[in-house]
Amino acid sequence: YQPQSTWGGHLLVKMSQTSADNQKQETTEIQFGSLSPKRSTIAVPDGEHKLQTGWSFWFDKKQKQHTENYADNLKKLGTFHSIEGFVRHYSYLSRPHELPRDTNLALFREGCVPMWESFPNGGCWILRVVKKAGPQTLSKLWESLLIACIGEAFEEPDVVGVVLSARNKEDLLSVWNKSNENDQVRFAIGEKLKEILALNANTLIQYKHHSVSIKDGSTFRNAKAYMFAATPSSEAARPPSPPPEVELPPPAVSS
After folding, report:
1. CB 66 within 8 A of CB 217
2. Three-state SS at 214
3. pLDDT in tens, 149-172
């Protein structure tokens, strides 16, 4: 990753991906949203592009049972406050398909801890990605979420973080919001998630309240599925019969 230039709230970042077969380089534009939480007051080195808030990477391994000492299982990998800081941290992380089974990698706003108990009135939007979608698809989706977060593309300070969960038969991407007091905001986040990931209009995404997760001990089990209509509004999401898994459609993988 190599930051290139900025203008009018935009930042171009060259993203280099190396594999055993080839190396390709793409240029991704980070557009900073107009809505954001209180700006960070921490200074960054001269020449670096400061983010609106600090962000921290976290890692943990799924436990058989959610216990009171769950926080001891969480490992903070580092915190950054600039685009360049993100690059430095991300370059040392394992690629999504390399994560061990039953582990979670998270990016959360500085000061926020990726635990249900931290946001008992919130919840998360969930996208299930089957393994046969391939490692490149998963990497593209995960990187799109990371860039959307640090660039405030959700345009909603209620978004506190994103999580990549590696499981046996599928991988799961989730976007956490801190409060469900306003359904319009909650559904707007879900609509924005589908836009950011360029998902097909018929793709189902799920939502689960953290208060329910605290009771049943799972972030993903018993999540409620939604399909969004073409016109975004708080009434545009309707719950269909949830399938056992949602396969990523082809439009999400097109370059």
Report:
1. yes
2. helix
3. 999 999 999 999 999 999 999 999
Beta strands, E only, the chain? 2-7, 10-18, 23-31, 50-61, 75-82, 103-109, 123-130, 159-166, 170-177, 205-209, 224-228, 237-238
164 three-state secondary structure:
strand
C-alpha closest to that of 191 among 227, 146, 159, 245: 227
Three-class SS state of 246: coil
Quote the pTM value.
0.76
- In sequence order, the 6+-apart residues with CB closer than 8 A to the CB of 151 are 11, 30, 31, 32, 33
Per-chain mean pLDDT for the chain:
79
Residues of the chain by 3-state class (helix, strand, coil), percent to 5: 25, 35, 40
The distance in angstroms from the start CA to the end CA of the chain is 18
Instruction: List the strands of the sheet with 23-31, edge to edge.
Output: 2-7, 10-18, 23-31
